[in-house]
Amino acid sequence: xxxxxxxxxxxxxxxxxxxxxxxxxxxxxxxxxxxxxxxxxxxxxxxxxxxxxxxxxxxxxxxxxxxxxxxxxxxxxxxxxxxxxxxxxxxxxxxxxxxxxxxxxxxxxxxxxxxxxxxxxxxxxxxxxxxxxxxxxxxxxxxxxxxxxxxxxxxxxxxxxxxxxxxxxxxxxxxxxxxxxxxxxxxxxxxxxxxxxxxxxxxxxxxxxxxxxxxxxxxxxxxxxxxxxxxxxxxxxxxxxxxxxxxxxxxxxxxxxxxxxxxxxxxxxxxxxxxxxxxxxxxxxxxxxxxxxxxxxxxxxxxxxxxxxxxxxxxxxxxxxxxxxxxxxxxxxxxxxxxxxxxxxxxxxxxxxxxxxxxxxxxxxxxxxxxxxxx
Length: 375
What we know:
With about 375 residues, this protein is mostly beta strands. The protein has a single domain (about 30-65, about 115-125, about 140-365), classed as Single-stranded right-handed beta-helix, Pectin lyase-like (Pectate Lyase C-like, 3 Solenoid). The chain has seven helices and 29 strands. It has helices spanning about 5-20, 40-45, 65-75, 90-95, 145-150, 350-355, 365; strands at about 25, 45-50, 75-80, 105-110, 115, 120, 130-135, 140-145, 160, 165-170, 170-175, 190-195, 200, 205, 210-215, 220, 225-230, 230-235, 240, 245-250, 255-260, 270-275, 275-280, 285-290, 295-300, 300-305, 310-315, 325-330, 345. The chain starts with 6 loop residues before the first helix and ends in an 8-residue tail after the last helix. It is found in: Secreted, Cell wall.
């Protein structure tokens, strides 16, 4: 009897060959000021961890990949989801159900193009999951949950509560209408990321108020797009956004960030490097003091006309002028003009900015790996 190998098995074998050697991004150098050099910088700083030892030839300790992550990357599982054609499942939710609790292997859910109307929660006991879409036909996960129905953070189209999550070439959409300023409960989250050590590559987050709940944990966003109106990147995560477009569609006053750091001891904050701030009008704030001690830094970022002169707001808490950490470093564009900036905003020196310009800001040298590459 002739035995055949399925296309899924062939693809998995190819993926295993590509990903057999766990890699991660070196953090010995700062992100370059010249955006044209960023791609090469990332490529140059990818190191092979399979051949690295605890110490180099001179006995100097090296930073090695997180052991749990390295083990998970050695044993891949591939699940295919598609609206039609060859697939294991037609919904992402059904695919997630097949992943065991306390999962210990990298499970890639390859999602075909089209729109998936689902409300998804990746539970905390299912780590090491990747959502992977085709960059030429990006899948959209869509739901219309609102705060009035579920509560703000539970309105998310996709909520990730597990660690080591990755998404590549996927759009997360909350299709609820733009909130009316005279009506409460219209906040609508597209993505809530509450797990630690998560990465998003070439993803889109589309909504209006409270689009992206960067809730808690360390996160990396690269080559992404975030659309919203008010507080559309919010939460208490410690995250780095690299080469990401942030698009305000506010019809009146807009606010990009509402970082939720409360106490001096909390190690959280948002850093935006080589990002592009675009959108409507001329009255959008970079951030407002939703909580007592927010920490937000923009570096090497283009700020369009949408950013107002003040730049930052304490919202309705003037006493927070002395507790916020709002910094800017070598930004450009009409919205970056320091004339008119609030006095509590910081124009950072090179020494002050250095902390925020490396992957070590999110300890990425221990867990951040490149996305999978399909043959």
